[in-house]
Amino acid sequence: MSGKLTIKKLSRMIGHSLFHPAMTDDEITAGCQLANKYDIAAVCVKPRHLSITAGLLNNTDIRVCTVVGFPHGKSAVTIHSEETENAILSGASEIDLVINISKVISGEWSGIEKEIDHINKITVFNGAVLKVILENEYLTDEQIIHLCEICSKINVAFIGISAGFGFVKPEKELHRYKDALDHRLGLMHRYLHPDVQIKVTGGVCTFEDLLRVRSLGVTRVGTTDTQAILEEAQRRLDGFIA
After folding, report:
1. Span 7-234: which CATH code?
2. For 201, which of 70, 132, 172, 222 could close a Cys bridge (C-beta 3.0–4.6 Å)?
């Protein structure tokens, strides 16, 4: 990622996450207003809030993202297909497909590849973007490498490190988590085709976090801390704002 670092470059990395189970329509509206204020890349919501989000972000460059197979990819492929088609009809322009974690651990690679390919074809045909979400904390390095190879072969737009709803990390374990995150990002960057971008959800809470993952090849982050990150970026990058 070459060139002068600007607020614009950082804001266009961010997908603002609005996933809390108790979130109201008013809170979705406030989140979309925040997204407009900072001109971020995307707003990520559950399917129930797609229509309102698409309406609020109409006539902007901000993309509408939702999840399929959330949070552990456990539904049948036919259900994931219907979820994808319904999401796009409701205004989604980005689909985050959570892979079936147990199938990966069981080594059911043929079925996993067929599902990713099928969902990717639906999204591309409808002018949307697919992000394949791995939930890396459950997986070995070898499994992650295999998934990177599959996603590269299919040429998905993004591969994501987590749905953000895996294990809860106590404060004392955050340093170990970041070390593991950096290792996995390096692994993904090494085995993914250059055209496949990397998304991180979870663990990016500060301006420094954003710079750190950016330096490791990440082009999209999912976070609830959008305002704090970009306000700190504006303070730190004063005079370098695009």
Report:
1. 3.20.20.70
2. 222
**Which helix or strand (DSSP H or E) is residue 159 part of?**
strand 158-160
- On the question of pLDDT at 175 being above 90, the answer is no
Question: Is residue 173 pLDDT above 50, yes or no?
Answer: no
Task: Specify the amino acid at residue 91.
Answer: G
d(CA 24, CA 54): 16
Q: Cα 65 vs. chain centroid, distance in angstroms? A: 9
- Between the alpha carbon of residue 149 and those of residues 64, 113, 125, 154, 192, the distances in Å are 27, 10, 22, 9, 6
> Quick check: 177 pLDDT over 80?
no
Please state the domain extents for the chain. Answer: 7-234
Core vs surface per residue 70-92: b (16+ CB within 10 A) or e: bbbbebeeeebbebbbebbebbb
Pairing of strands 42-45, 197-201: unpaired
